[in-house]
Design goal:
Elements (H helix, E strand, L loop, with lengths): L1 H19 L13 E6 L1 E2 L6 E9 L2 E5 L4 E6 L6 E2 L4 E5 L2 H29 L5 H27 L1 E3 L4 E6 L6 E2 L4 E7 L3 E7 L1 H4 L7 E6 L2 E10 L10 E9 L8 E6 L7 E4 L4 E3 L2 E8 L2 E6 L1 E2 L6 E6 L6 E4 L11 E2 L8
Parallel strand pairs: 1-24
Antiparallel strand pairs: 1-23, 2-17, 3-12, 3-16, 4-11, 5-7, 5-10, 6-9, 7-8, 9-11, 12-15, 13-14, 13-16, 14-15, 17-22, 18-19, 19-20, 21-22
Helix pairs in contact: 2-3
């Protein structure tokens, strides 16, 4: 009986505790993060197609040597500005100097013999044939001296034009051979954009036409100076060259993009800033019913700030720009500064 009574008492105590216990705390209210949301653009928002390009100088040179010699001195460093004709590198010329002395000695000897033949010719003591022969020997010896002097001059490498040393290929003490590159020099002054275009992208363009471009956040204008048809056997694309009109003095080798306004980009496209990468998958976050929904996409090729969408999106869906560390299913709140695209 005591055991049964204790069990009933314990059960009653538990029921009373459950009935009269403290009320559980409600779920904590989280502050919704604000994210920028934009509609999927119908084609490029700029009204055309952007193609990738590289900004470079119209004057570039890979300075090489025609001599086999050891590098004696390198007088410039990468990034250094040099004037036209400035000495930038010197090669060892000891062998050539020795050959030059021997050649000059031979020239002096044959010149002395020439003078003696001339004196004898004045006295009618030599023939015309002897004089002509010694004259030919003098000319041959002089040519040998001149050739050696020219080769010695080639050991003193000078800048063909004013510019900036882009790269240095050798160090002091290196042995170099004919045709081996030593320095890369990028000239001052005019700059140009170089891009590859498909036939569709090049359609409507012509030499002399002006195009807009962007590079490192700077907008500018360029004039097409060359347009070659697609001849690449793999990409079937051609080359476009456009002289930069403004602004001047942009950084060489910078990535740029040219707006080809005559090309219509069909279908949907998304900004690169909205893309999310997870391994080999690429997607975007969709703003749907107050939450972020991760959507994997199939994208086409593109070179501008927008990429074409093959599948995975509808034209009336909103994508979240610059999602950062946003998670799938995370609550969101649309910011007041919404970019609706086109």
């Amino acid at each position: 009986m005591k055991t049964a009574l204790f069990s009933l008492t314990l059960a009653g105590t538990l029921l009373g505790t459950l009935a009269c216990g403290h009320k559980e705390a409600g779920p904590e209210v989280k502050v919704l993060p604000k994210v920028a949301v934009s509609l999927v653009a119908q084609g490029s928002p700029d009204g055309g197609a952007w193609v990738a390009a590289t900004l470079q100088s119209t004057r570039t040179a890979m300075i090489a040597t025609r001599m086999a010699a050891q590098v004696r001195r390198v007088l410039v460093q990468e990034g250094q500005r040099v004037a036209a004709g400035a000495l930038v590198l010197s090669l060892g010329d000891e062998d050539l100097q020795g050959q030059l002395k021997a050649a000059e000695t031979g020239l002096a000897t044959i010149q002395a013999h020439h003078r003696r033949i001339q004196a004898l010719q004045a006295l009618k003591a030599s023939t015309i044939a002897e004089l002509e022969q010694v004259q030919a020997q003098v000319a041959q010896a002089q040519a040998g001296v001149d050739a050696l002097k020219a080769n010695i001059a080639y050991t003193q490498i000078r800048a063909p034009f004013s510019g900036v040393v882009q790269s240095r290929k050798v160090n002091e003490g290196d042995f170099v051979g004919p045709g081996m590159p030593l320095l890369e020099l990028v000239g001052d002054g005019e700059q140009e954009l170089v891009a590859t275009l498909s036939d569709q992208e090049a359609k409507g363009l012509k030499t002399g036409a002006k195009v807009k471009f962007e590079s490192e956040g700077v907008q500018g204008e360029a004039q097409i100076s060359g347009l070659a048809p697609g001849g690449d056997p793999y990409s079937h694309k051609g080359t476009l060259r456009a002289k930069v009109l403004k602004p001047k003095g942009l950084r060489q080798g910078s990535f740029a993009r040219i707006l080809v306004s005559g090309v219509a980009v069909e279908g949907l496209s998304v900004p690169r800033s909205a893309l999310v990468q997870r391994g080999e998958l690429t997607g975007v976050f969709i703003a749907k019913e107050g939450r972020a929904e991760l959507r994997w996409l199939s994208l086409g090729e593109g070179s501008g700030s927008y990429l074409p969408v093959r599948s995975g999106l509808k034209s009336d869906e909103k994508i979240i720009d610059q999602p950062g560390v946003l998670q799938d299913g995370q609550p969101i709140e649309l910011s007041s500064g919404v970019n609706h695209g086109k």
